[in-house]
Structures are given as structure tokens and as C-alpha cells.
Input
Amino acid sequence: MLSLRKEDKLLKIVSGSLVDLPSPSSLSYFWNFGSLLGIFLMIQIMSGLFLSFHFAGDVNLSFDSIIHMMRDVNNGWLLRVVHANGASMFFLLMYIHVGRGLYYGSYRFEKTWLSGVTILLLSMATAFLGYVLPWGQMSFWAATVITNLLSAIPYIGILLVEWIWGGFAVGNPTLTRFFAFHFILPFVILFMVILHLFFLHETGSSNSMGVASDCDKVSFHPYYSIKDVYGFGCFFIFFMLICVMSPYIFMDVENFITSDPLVTPVHIQPEWYFLFAYTILRSIPSSIGGVIALVMSVVVLYFLPFVMNHKFRSTYFYYFMKYLFWFFVVNWLLLTWIGACVVEMPYSGLGMIFSFIYFYMFLMFWLI
Output
């Protein structure tokens, strides 16, 4: 069996990625989140595929088709809550994964980091498109507000918005094309994940100290495959407890009401994983400035491999940077909290302060 695994070309590739892959001996459970993200991506793709069998991409039918899934389809309610809560779990894992890369200096591996940031951006686009599909009150108004942001682009903004809408307002053409893109983008993300893994295996995993460990490596299996299985088991139990005991904890109550273009919700807000960027957007008085700040809140991650030129990769050797990183995490959590609050004092003022600190932190990371 060992010789077959070494000689067969396909098995050799699989073995080199999952069995014999040389890995640093000092990896902690923070390195589990990459494999967890891969598993949850497949859960999202499979649950979304089965949900698409019953979904109707029409403004007159989409909301009722969701109700039909929940009430009439066998285990349809479970599929729906797994897919909806799976998106929240996916972003929770991704933010932890990005934070771990920032803390331990994984951005020094340029191709791996840049492909990972691209996956984050594609995932955010896919999640937004999926949030619109139920065509509830919050779905409709979130689509209206977010797409209208593009109108701030000089000269072509209005034309771009009308092209995305497929008309002069958010309507049936908008929902149809959002459904099409929401279906196809996960497969683009899957391709990017394969590319991400290829770059990772080309350079090898980094360790917590950020130093060379070529002389101290172990095979991925069984040392880290056991860790991945254990980590997935613990997190999956947590995930299923949420799906069974609190299935609607991440959903907005407004989205359980069918969309009405004549009634504007009191407080329009996106899902929790967009709230930090939403706070930054509404903290800038200028429309075009808010859009630029919104985009830069994620795109700024692209620049890290080129501006963070520390002699050592890990913050293990930078005493002050450890505290700076955790200050950044607290600031990000505060931005998320402010995004869920109404636009009034003191929340609007605090949002401006935390938004400034968010970008200032990246400048501090560069200067240290």
C-alpha cells in the first residue's frame, strides 16, 4: 500500500498534501482554522445546492419559496438554518484565520497571503448576494442601500448601479442575477482555495516563532490530522447546537417580513460580519469617501506583504506589537458593535474614532 501511494501519480499528490506533507513541529490549534474553513466551504456548497432545488428566483415567489422550504420540505428547515448559520461560522473562522496570520506574520508569504485576501473578498461578495435572496424587508433594503453606494463613483456611478439592478430600481432582474452569481461564486472560491493550498504547500507552513524549521519537521499525518479531526468535532458540535437550539440568533427579525418598497425599516444594517465595514462607511460624511474607506477596510490587507518588512515574522519577538494586535482586535469588535447601533450620538461619534483607529493601527504595524 505504501509503494502504491508513492508510485501512483494521483495518490502521490493526495499523499503529499494530506499525509507526508512536512510541517513544523510547533504548530498549535490556531493552525486548525484553515482546514475548518475548507470543510465549512463544502458544507455551504452542498447545503446551498440542495436549497437551490426549491428556491424560486422571482420577486413574487422567492419569499414564499423560503417559507415552503421551512414548512413543507423534509428537513428543509435544517438545510436552511445550516446554510444561514454556516455563513456566520465561515466568517468567524475566516476572521480568526486572518488574525492568526497577522499575529504570526503569515503575510510574509506573499502569494499565499494575497490569494487568501482574495478569498475573503469573494466570500464577502457571495454572502451579500445570498443575504438578498430571501427577499425579506432587510434583504430588499440592504440590496438597495449597498448597490446605491456605487452611484458615488464619478461619471459612471449611475450607469453602473442601473446595470447591476437591470433597470431603474431593485427588482426582479436584480434578484435573478444575484441568484446566478451567488450560485457560481462559491465554485470560484473553491478554485481560489485550491490555488491557496498550492501556494501554501510550495512555501510550507510557518510556525509560531516565524523562524526557519526545516530541521524540525514532522509529517502531517498523524500529528496534525488528529488535531484537525478533534478541532472539527468540537466546532461542529458548537455549530449544531446553534442550529438546533438558537437557529435564528444571527438573523434579522425584519427579514421574516416580505419586502415592501414603500416601508423603510427603522434601522437598516447588514449581517454581523459586515458591521465593522458598515461602521467605517457611515462614519465618513462624504459619499465617495465612505465608499473608498469601506473598500480599503479590507483591501488594506493586500499591502501587508509589501510594507511589513520586519526582520522576524512573528510578533513573538515584538513585545509592543503583541499588545497593539490585541488592541486592534478590541477596536474591531467595537466597530462591529457600533455598526449594530442606531446612527445617533454617541454611537456616530464613537464610530468615527474607532474607524480612525482601525486604519491608524495598520500604520503602527508598519512603523514598528
Summary: The radius of gyration is 22 Å. The beta strands are 22-24, 217-219. The chain has 16 helices and two strands.
